[in-house]
Design a protein that fits this description.
The protein is globular and about 70 Å long. The chain has two domains: 158 residues, Lyase, Ornithine Decarboxylase, Chain A, domain 1; 248 residues, TIM Barrel (Alpha-Beta Barrel). The chain is built from twelve helices and 21 strands. Helix 2 runs parallel beside helix 9, helix 5 crosses helix 6 and helix 8 runs parallel beside helix 9. The longest helix is centred in the middle third of the chain and has 19 residues. The strands form three sheets. Strands 4, 14, 15, 16, 17, 18, 19, 20 and 21 form a nine-stranded mixed β-sheet that branches. Strands 5-6-7-8-9-11-12-13 form an eight-stranded parallel beta barrel, surrounded by five helices. The chain has a three-stranded antiparallel β-sheet with strand order 1-2-3. It is of the alpha/beta class. The termini are far apart. The structure holds ligand LLP. Ligand LLP binds next to helix 10 and helix 11. This is Diaminopimelate decarboxylase. Specifically catalyzes the decarboxylation of meso-diaminopimelate (meso-DAP) to L-lysine. InterPro entries: Ala_racemase/Decarboxylase_C, DAP_deCOOHase_LysA, De-COase2_C, De-COase2_CS, De-COase2_N, Orn/DAP/Arg_de-COase, PLP-binding_barrel. It comes from Tritonibacter horizontis. It holds the Pfam family Orn_Arg_deC_N.
């Protein structure tokens, strides 16, 4: 459920007409709903009620500080994967002891920044990384809390580009080698080995892969405890999928996912962390765009929008489906027509949808891409010298620009010309 609903034929973001935001900030833009962000965070938080837990929002999904602050003030921790994310979370007021650091390529500089600023734990992905964390910790005279990310070799049954839990993927250490790697970790004086981490992929629409992975984690917990390790925290990653279209069967709910966690891992009495990103932000955001032209091709009609693949990459990159809806509902009785919905970027991959049935639309009409809150703005680029589009946050009947649209001068003047030119 989200808070983007029609009232009297006009699409609203909570209590604000989307067209009013478009008039104020211009198109294209992203708009997020505070109530939806909070609702989704709380669904996870409540799903783990009765268990010692922390929901660490995977901020790679949508990392504007206003979003981070909204979630942190409701009790969220953060899952970060770079120095930039770490510093952004800190800038948004998230304390270090609520930040977990994931990612396979943490540099010694990133590790130093996090150890100095405060960190809940590093999720370690390899032995070379473990050695560097140990070295930096010793140099700073601190002990680094770590989990080791294990790769359970489970098929997440999702898009190949976002599956991470098979042995052929670059993530984690093979679960079969875990005993050996944990023994090595425990021998390093700069590390405090506190738990196990796993993340098998994103946009999972079936609970079974989670169950298989978590069963392996439960087994490993027992094995490692028997070997003398004080395993007290399990980071179970993110990955629960969202409905991208209303016609498909809905993916499992956070409450069902929470029950699965309790069933498979509850008996271990570990602190549980989860790292959801998409489910919190995805359906809490729209990308709003305007029709520039309606172009009649030989055998199809093209709706040419002012938003493009550089603004919302997912359709071009993953063939992802996003529902696209008119901001002002057309008069009833008009027959929908098939359109190829495209952006102005100079490649055919800049296509959002092919043969999509839409009410008749004309130049100047506004459309909204649903489910664009996660992996939308954060994956945008300035390809074709198109400035990054603004982000807006709605809260009840108020809205605020949380990232403004750069001017063309701001974008262009970031280049510097060498003196020989
Ligand atoms: N934890 C780790 C270690 C991750 O790598 C990810 C996502 C998450 C948590 C959050 O997963 P989520 O709950 O959002 O599924 N750009 C792609 C998605 C990439 C996901 C990368 N890792 C897309 O647009 O579909």
């Amino acid at each position: 459920m989200d808070h983007f609903l029609y009232r009297d034929g006009a699409l609203f973001a909570e209590d604000v007409p989307v067209a009013e935001i478009a008039a104020a900030v211009g198109t294209p833009f992203y708009v997020y709903s505070t109530a939806t962000l909070l609702r989704h965070f709380r669904l996870f938080d409540e799903a783990l009620e009765g268990t010692d837990h922390l929901v660490c929002y995977a901020m790679k999904a949508a990392s504007n500080q206003a979003i981070l602050k909204t979630l942190a003030s409701a009790g969220a921790g953060m899952d970060v994967v770079s120095q930039g994310e770490y510093l952004r979370a800190r800038a948004a007021g998230v304390p270090g002891d609520r930040i977990v650091f994931s990612g396979i390529g943490k540099t010694s500089e990133e590790i130093r920044v996090a150890l100095t600023g405060g960190i809940r734990q590093f999720n370690v992905e390899s032995e070379p990384e473990m050695a560097v964390i140990n070295a930096v910790a010793l140099e700073l005279g601190v002990v680094a809390p770590i989990t080791v990310r294990v790769n359970p070799d489970v098929d997440a049954k999702t898009h190949a580009k976002i599956a991470t839990g098979k042995s052929e993927n670059k993530f984690g250490i093979p679960i079969a080698r875990a005993t050996e790697v944990y023994a090595h970790a425990a021998s390093l004086p700069g590390l405090d080995v506190i738990g196990i981490d796993v993340h098998i992929g994103s946009q999972l629409t079936d609970l079974e892969p989670f169950r298989l992975a978590y069963q392996k984690v439960a087994e490993l917990t027992q094995t490692l405890r028997t070997a003398g390790h004080d395993i007290r925290r399990l980071d179970l990653g993110g990955g629960l999928g969202i409905p991208y279209t209303r016609s498909n069967a809905a993916p499992p709910l956070p409450v069902e996912y929470g029950q699965l966690i309790k069933d498979e891992l509850g008996h271990l009495n570990c602190e549980i962390e989860i790292e959801p990103g998409r489910l919190i932000a995805g359906n809490a955001g729209l990308m709003v765009s305007k029709v520039i032209y309606l172009k009649n091709g030989e055998d199809r009609d093209f709706l040419i929008l002012d938003g493009a693949m550089n603004d919302l990459l997912r359709p071009a990159m993953y063939d992802a489906h996003h529902d696209i809806v008119p901001v002002i509902e057309p008069a009833p009785g008009l027959e929908p027509r098939p359109y190829d919905i495209v952006g102005p970027v100079c490649e055919s991959g800049d296509t959002f949808a092919k043969g999509r049935l839409m009410p008749p639309l004309a130049s100047g009409d506004l459309v909204a891409f649903r489910s664009a809150g996660a992996y939308g703005a954060v994956m945008a680029s300035e390809y074709n010298s198109r400035p990054l589009i603004p982000e807006v946050l709605v809260h009840g009947d108020q809205f605020a620009v949380i990232r403004s649209r750069p001017t063309f001068d701001e974008m262009i003047n970031r280049d510097t010309i060498p003196e020989w030119l």
